[in-house]
Each structure stands twice: as C-alpha cells, then as structure tokens.
Amino acid sequence: MSALYVDIGNTRIKWQQRFDDRAPVQGLLEKSNVTHFYWPDVEGKVIVSSVRDDEELYRLLEQRYPGQVEWLTSPLVDYNGFKHCYPEASRLGVDRWLAMLGARSHKEGGVMVVDAGTALTIDVISADNEHEGGYIVPGLTMARDALFSGTGKVRPFVDDERADNVELGRNTVNCVVAGTLRQHLALVASVCADYPEYQLLVTGGDGQTLAASLNTGYYPDLIFDGMDSLCVGLYTA
C-alpha cells in the first residue's frame, strides 16, 4: 500500500510517495511543468496541501486519482486534540499547521517549529497540543531581494565573492548575506531563550543552514510527516 503527499507552493510543487514496506520516493517540479509530469500509481490516499486555489491542478489530480484525493487548503478545526490559537482557524496557513502536526510525530512535550522558506515562520506548540502563537518574517531570499531592489547603494557586483556565513562582510553581497542570516539566527535564538524547555525542530528550504548554525536537528519533511499523520489518523489509506 502507498500514499502520495503533494505540497503546492507559489511556484513549485513538492511530492513524496510513502510505502508500507520500503523507503519513500520524492520529487520537485515547477508548476509550469505539471501537465507533463508522470504522476505515480498510488493505491491509497492522495493528500494535497495548497496555499491557494489551483483549479487546473485540482482537475488534473482528480482525473488521475478518482476518489482518492483529499484537498487541504486550510487547517482542520478539530483534529487529534490540536488547539488553535487563531480565532478563525482557517486563516492559519495550512503548511504551518501540517508542519506542527509533523513535529508532534517526532517529539512529545513542548515544541517550536521553525520553517525557513519563502517566509521564516516560528510556531510554538505546548505539550498538550495548544498552538500558543508564532512569528512570520521575510525569508532569506525575500529579505535579500528587498535590499537589492529597494535601495540605490546596496546592490550586488558580479565580481563579489559570496560566503554563506555570519562573519563580517567585506563586500556588499557578503554584508547582506551574513546580515540577513544573522538576523534570522538572532530571532530564533531569542524565541528559544523565551521558551527554553521547548524542543526546536527546523524545516524548510533554508532550514539546513539555520539548523547547522543553531546546532540542532533538521527535519526536511515535516509537512509530509503531518500529512502522514492525517492519513493514518483520519483518512483510510
């Protein structure tokens, strides 16, 4: 038996197929190539997370997997004891919610989920599954692009050598790269200091860099882990 998990972002789609008896397979594709992609055969559920409506992809997956697709565009209000702090749970990003469910599949007790992607999000979940709240700031690429596009003097030069660390920069590119990375690390460290008993889990495309600098674990598949918990606990795979 297998299940397919699909995470639709703004420009790219990540997918992972999990099996009962062997390691998962996964991939990444641009949304512009979705109609040419050969979607794998799946015996069980196909769970799709999308931050926005996508009618074309919805029709494609419904045709490819008739009766198998569960489409998630917002968190479920009541699932497995999870307590929302948002007055309107549907206003919480479904990707954040799934990452929190995924974190719970790895750790008991209080946890803090840092997702370093297009935006950097931090979410704090108590030991009894209450979402206590979080933070959202621009991700590394977005923050750097804002500096380069929004200022006259802060701009990259083609001959600038780039070093991905937090050392003092000696050219504009490195000043921006190190500054934004140090900014993110400082934010995460500050929140960790406020919640010292909570366990930190880092995910997202830029998460590996943050996790290494923070000397903590990197969990690249938290959103898929959250979908997997849904498949086991709610949907019949």
Description:
The strands form 2 sheets. The protein has a 5-stranded mixed sheet, with helices on both faces. A 4-stranded mixed sheet has the order 8-7-6-9, with helices on both faces. The N and C termini lie close together (8 Å). The chain is α/β, with parallel strands linked by helices. The model has no long low-confidence stretch (mean pLDDT 90). A hairpin with a 3-residue loop joins strand 1 and strand 2. The protein folds into 2 domains: 120 residues, ATPase, nucleotide binding domain (Nucleotidyltransferase, domain 5), CATH 3.30.420; 112 residues, Nucleotidyltransferase, domain 5, CATH 3.30.420. It is built from 6 helices and 9 strands, in the order ββββαβαβββααβαα. Helix 2 crosses helix 6. Helices cover 32% and strands 24% of the residues.
